[in-house]
Amino acid sequence: MPLSEADWGTARPETDLITVIEGTLRESAPEALRVDDFLRDAGDTDPTEEGLLKAVTGAVRWQFSRERSKAVVEASLERLVHEGRAEKRAFESDGEITIYYRIAPSGDLPR
């Protein structure tokens, strides 16, 4: 059902997913995170949870499945890398390659 102009004006503004993910990377600095780190135990959130899980679970709560959420988070991270606001590295351990992301080190990057 479409939202009327009047209802749009009374609806609560929401933060976009890219901003939430960038904020999570900033809070986690200098650590690097995997896409799966953003989706740990996503689902019903305990109201007492804080930090990474609460922020990301709230941002992706409208998604239909974990795989769909994973694709959305990965696309957001790739956008931040493309814009130079995050870095991406491939780390190999026991023959398995895992992709990690972290906030770019420059403090003067656009937000």
Overview of the molecule:
- The protein is of the alpha+beta class.
- The chain has one domain (15-103): Arc Repressor Mutant, subunit A (Orthogonal Bundle).
- It has four helices and two strands.
- The chain has helices at 5-10, 17-28, 52-59, 66-82; strands at 86-93, 96-103.
- It has a two-stranded antiparallel ribbon with strand order 1-2.
- A hairpin with a 2-residue loop joins strand 1 and strand 2.
- The protein is elongated and about 55 Å long.
CATH topology: Arc Repressor Mutant, subunit A
In N-to-C order, the SSE pattern is HHHHEE
Derived structural class:
alpha+beta
Strand content: 5-15%
What is the level-2 CATH architecture name?
A: Orthogonal Bundle
Uncertain regions spanning at least 5 consecutive residues: none
The total tally of domains equals 1
User: Given the C-alpha coordinates, what overall shape results?
Assistant: elongated
Largest sheet descriptor? 2 strands, antiparallel
The number of helices is 4
Q: Give the CATH level 1 class.
A: Mainly Alpha
Gyration radius from CA atoms, angstroms = 16 Å
What is the helical fraction, as a range of percent? 25-40%
Mean pLDDT: 80
